Amino acid sequence: MRKMIACCGLDCEKCDAYLATINDDRALREKTAKLWSALNQTPILPEQINCQGCRADGVKTVFCESLCGIRRCALKKGVTTCGHCPDMENCQTLGMITANNPEALNNLRGQAVK
Questions:
Q1: Cβ(5)–Cβ(107) under 8 Å?
Q2: What string of H, E and C letters represents the secondary structure of the chain?
Q3: What is the predicted pLDDT for the residue at 114?
Q4: pLDDT score at 10
């Protein structure tokens, strides 16, 4: 299982916060903060765009660290990703991600407990 697949199935290696962090890219931090501020209707500063991956050791954005309901649920249930959860297919919270990102669902299904 790839460590950079987030609890929700998104690929952290494709995330702008991750890319800005590993490349120390100020312009990408600024762009991401602006976009995420608009999407979430809350101010997000470029300095807050630092993340080394949802499941990796190290710094995470405030959302990934403490606000993400999917990550909190996975930690509470003791599963590595939602792909290891028996409730994955019927989860409404996860559905908010996978409805718009079929790649995330495919990533999770590849990890599903058989």
A1: yes
A2: CCCCECCCCCEHHHCHHHHHHHCCCHHHHHHHHHHHHHHHCCCCCHHHCCCCCCCCCCCCCHHHHHHCHHHHHHHHHCCCCHHHCCCHHHCHHHHHHHCCCHHHHHHHHCCCCC
A3: 46
A4: 94
Total domains in the fold of the chain? 1
Q: Is residue 83 part of a domain?
A: yes
Evaluate whether 55 touches 9 at the Cβ level (below 8 Å): no
Instruction: Going from the first residue of the chain to its last (114 residues), give the mean pLDDT of each consecutive group of 10, the final group possibly shorter.
Output: 84 95 97 91 92 93 87 95 94 91 91 56
Range of the domain at 85: 12-109
At 113 the pLDDT is 53
CB atoms within 10 A of CB 13: 13
